[in-house]
Amino acid sequence: MRRAALLAIAGVLLIGASAIAVRVSNPEPPISPAAAPKPKLALLTSLPLIFADSFSLEGGGSPALESLERHYAVEPIGVGDATSLAGKSLLLMAHPRAQPAEALVELDAWVRAGGRLLLLADPKLDWHSERPLGDPLRPPPDFADSGLLAHWGLALGGPIVDGPVVRPAAGKQILFVSPGRLASRAACRISDDGLIARCAIARGAVTVIADADFLNLAGPGAIDGPTAQNLELLIGELARLKTRQPARPQPYPQARPKEQAKND
User: Fold this and answer.
1) Which of 72, 179, 174 lies closest to 125 in space, CA to CA?
2) What range defines the domain where residue 110 resides?
3) Are 138 and 112 in contact, with CB atoms under 8 Å apart?
4) pTM for the complete prediction?
5) How many structural domains does the chain have?
6) What is the pLDDT of residues 21-38, one digit of tens each?
């Protein structure tokens, strides 16, 4: 009887040791913490980045949207007003339609309060569209400025070349199409021969790229050529904006009153 009990205890110990050995050799995967939520990105665009050119629910999306959604929680908005921008700190305006005057005032206030804006302003959009000219849903043929750039001390000229051209931008080789050239009379830093302007606007920051066709990477009329770094430019400039601490802008140069000029 005693021998049988000892054998039973030894068996239990062997089973326990085997279980421990298996657990050591095959450890349970660690419990991973919940993934951090993606930062919000408001998207205002006239381009078929979210829906196809027909605006149907089939065949929507774009390489640009897929790339954005890997980094951000993208929230499309229809107008850049205070209501649409509430609770958001980062905005991509990709060749937007003309904004109402009151929305421009609220957009400017949002930027000055600390908002970050990446604006793609194309002086000659070559993006293919099946929609007829004059269709309100067709992207505008050029950037509908409405005085916004001038208010921030910028001017958009161009296009500097008609058609596709590979140009260096932010340390990358980008295939643009009919890009423009930006000039500044305020606290904006112009780089890459006028292709990019980075501006400090009070507590906020604005980056302007003088082209939008560089996002046209799929579908009818997509640009053909070396586009491997095109989306890297988009994501890189958004990341730069998100982390940038802009310098306090200098005041615009003020013209002297005529009476003072006469006295001089």
Assistant:
1) 179
2) 40-243
3) no
4) 0.78
5) 1
6) 444 445 555 555 556 889
